[in-house]
Amino acid sequence: MKPNLKKIWRRLGIPADYPERRHLPLQRETARLVSIGPAADDGKILSMTPRAAAAWRRMHATAAHDGVQLLPLSAFRSIARQTRIIRGKLAAGADINDILRFVAAPGCSEHHTGRALDIGSPKAHHFEEDFARTAEFRWLKKHAADFGFHLSYPRRNPHRIGYEPWHWCWRTN
Q1: Is 11 part of any domain?
Q2: DSSP states of the chain
């Protein structure tokens, strides 16, 4: 059953016109997932759509061959999980506008599609801008598009999402 996003947003304090204001399309939550192995930071099994997972495996292997260690940190995330993340930040005292600078509203996250992947480096803090100063990021900037992956949130992106050099999404076109 598709969740009632407007109801979820209202409960979280997210404006009903959030997707329009942020130029973020609603993202369909995928049902077809395959494992890509454990997350580098907590060992939880990560999943992506079959085609995105195959592209990730090829990209990961090519990077390793080039001496670059790409660390998978986060992949598929359900709408329910996205909601729990925001609720947790609200419970910790964060303001919803501050939260939405780095966390898309439930229903608008590319992670729902099973095609988004957060990538880290052994030499950078996870989910921090210092990832942009690593060999892994430089390799991704040069080669990720060859495998269908694109940086979703560069500096000054139209979605007003903070710079996320770790967030890459596989696109079929």
Answers
A1: no
A2: ----HHHHHHHHT--TTHHHHHT----PPP---EEEEE-TTT-PEEEE-HHHHHHHHHHHHHHHHTT---EEEE----HHHHHHHHHHHHHTT--HHHHTTTSPPTTS-GGGGT-EEEEE-TTS-TTSGGGGGSHHHHHHHHHGGGGTEEEEE-TT-TT-PPPEEEEEEE---
